[in-house]
């Protein structure tokens, strides 16, 4: 009897079911994989895509970590480049005007920065000499101030204090000894901070010089990788940034001039020495140092006025507070709306946001940056004519709920006779 390859328990044709030979063969499935999805079964091998996916995920995580580390390491340099870019935008009108008259752009940029450097160095030198003279004067007059204070305390509280005892107590106190030790150990830290500030200032000046001198070349390099339509948008954005940054600096310079003249008149009237320099100090510091500039600007005139008469310091403080309110609510909104064309609330919010993101640098460049973005996006926002509805002008009309209570009472009163009867 010939052997057969049929299974003994397999159904046969006699049972009414097809045999394995008669049934259609199923699709071939690799061992260890399910026919439906091709994924690995519990007893199978690892899918081919899984190792590559794991390597790709690890590579992305490593690239993200490396990028984050590099960004944090270069944050200072990026901030310096941002400051230099806005400084180059500020001097762009003067450089372009000198270049249009036939002067080489590099020479024009050098002359502009030389003028700014000479003006800043002269102001710092004059201010330093003034501060040194006032500090010497205060040190020489300190015993007299101390005697006056001791006499007032003895007369008011019936004590018997003496200047010699107070001086001995201060010289032999632990507080003074610890302060001297900390000051001696902090000299190196202060020197390192000064050197770091000078290097940062040099970096900003170098980048801003290159941005201003090579402005046309930089614009050509940016436009060379863009299609013609995008090139027009980039050039338009650049022009708007130059106009808004120049307008912002113009408004700040005008407010600094007004503030300096006002404080100079007050200090000259009180007889405070170095009134012109103090006026320039108040004007520049209060306008170009955000957030705390007003307090720094007012502290120095108050200190100098205190050396003349303590009550003069109080008068200076009162004037600084009153003038600050006048500037915030009357002068600054008008000048900002004409030069930068930005709402005061938007300007305040942009300064707060810039301070939160980049500190003092963000507060300084926030207004021109927001003004540039607002002017650039304004060209792409479609505007429609506003309907002539009374509610647009801030009051309700008849279509918004009928006449008001006052109008209804007036009509009811006009509809009655003097005797109280209704008119026919």
Number of continuous helical runs: 14
**Strand element count:** 0
Task: Output mean pLDDT.
Answer: 76
Which structural class matches the secondary elements?
mainly alpha
Main beta sheet:
none
Poorly predicted ranges (pLDDT <50, ≥5 residues)?
1-17, 19-27, 34-38
| Separation, N- and C-terminal Cα atoms | 130 Å
Helix content: over 70%
Describe the secondary structure blueprint for this structure:
Blueprint: H1 49-73, H2 75-100, H3 105-157, H4 163-171, H5 174-185, H6 187-213, H7 215-223, H8 228-270, H9 275-288, H10 293-308, H11 310-339, H12 344-358, H13 360-378, H14 405-414
Helix pairs in contact: 2-3, 2-6, 2-8, 3-6, 8-9, 8-11, 8-13, 9-10, 10-11, 12-13
Give a quick summary of the entry.
This protein has 424 residues and is mostly helical. Helices cover 73% and strands 0% of the residues. The protein is extended, with a radius of gyration of 39 Å.
Provide a descriptive summary of the structure in words.
This protein has 424 residues and is mainly α. The protein folds into two domains: 73-225, no CATH class; 228-378, no CATH class. It is 73% helix and 0% strand. It contains 14 helices and no strands. It has helices at 49-73, 75-100, 105-157, 163-171, 174-185, 187-213, 215-223, 228-270, 275-288, 293-308, 310-339, 344-358, 360-378, 405-414. Helix 8 (228-270) packs antiparallel against helix 11 and helix 10 (293-308) runs antiparallel to helix 11. Keywords: Cell membrane, Membrane, Transmembrane, Transmembrane helix, Transport. It comes from Streptomyces cyanogenus. Belongs to the autoinducer-2 exporter (AI-2E) (TC 2.A.86) family. It holds the Pfam family AI-2E_transport.
């Amino acid at each position: 009897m010939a052997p057969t390859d049929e299974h003994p328990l397999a159904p046969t044709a006699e049972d009414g079911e097809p045999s394995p030979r008669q049934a259609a063969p199923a699709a071939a499935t690799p061992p260890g994989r399910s026919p439906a999805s091709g994924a690995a079964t519990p007893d199978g091998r690892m899918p081919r895509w899984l190792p590559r996916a794991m390597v790709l995920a690890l590579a992305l995580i490593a690239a993200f970590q490396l990028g984050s580390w590099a960004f944090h390491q270069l944050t200072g340099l990026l901030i310096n480049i941002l400051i230099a870019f806005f400084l180059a935008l500020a001097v762009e009108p003067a450089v372009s005007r000198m270049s249009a008259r036939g002067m080489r752009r590099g020479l024009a940029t050098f002359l502009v920065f030389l003028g700014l450097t000479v003006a800043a160095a002269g102001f710092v030198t004059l201010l330093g000499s003034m501060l040194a003279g006032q500090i010497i004067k205060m040190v020489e007059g300190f015993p007299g101030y101390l005697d006056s204070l001791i006499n007032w305390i003895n007369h008011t509280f019936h004590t018997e204090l003496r200047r010699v005892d107070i001086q001995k107590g201060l010289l032999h106190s632990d507080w003074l000894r610890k302060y001297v030790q900390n000051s001696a150990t902090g000299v190196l830290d202060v020197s390192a901070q000064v050197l770091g500030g000078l290097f940062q200032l040099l970096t900003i000046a170098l980048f801003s010089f290159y941005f201003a001198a090579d402005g046309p070349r930089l614009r050509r390099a940016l436009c060379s990788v863009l299609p013609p339509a995008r090139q027009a948008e980039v050039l338009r954005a650049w022009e708007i940034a130059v106009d808004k940054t120049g307008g912002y600096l113009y408004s700040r310079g005008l407010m600094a001039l007004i503030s300096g003249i006002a404080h100079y008149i007050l200090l000259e009237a009180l007889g405070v020495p170095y009134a012109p320099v103090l006026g320039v100090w108040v004007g520049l510091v209060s306008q170009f140092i955000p957030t705390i500039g007003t307090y720094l600007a007012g502290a120095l005139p108050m200190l100098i006025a205190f050396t003349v008469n303590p009550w003069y310091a109080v008068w200076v403080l009162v004037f600084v507070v009153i003038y600050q309110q006048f500037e915030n609510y009357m002068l600054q909104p008008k000048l900002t709306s004409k030069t930068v064309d930005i709402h005061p609330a938007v300007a305040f919010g942009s300064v707060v946001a810039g301070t939160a993101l980049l500190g003092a640098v963000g507060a300084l460049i926030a207004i021109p940056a927001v003004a540039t973005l607002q002017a650039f996006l304004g060209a792409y926002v479609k505007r429609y004519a506003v309907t002539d509805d009374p509610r647009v002008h801030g009051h309700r009309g008849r279509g918004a709920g009928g006449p008001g209570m006052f109008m209804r009472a007036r009509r009811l009163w006009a509809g009655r006779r003097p005797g109280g009867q209704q008119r026919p």
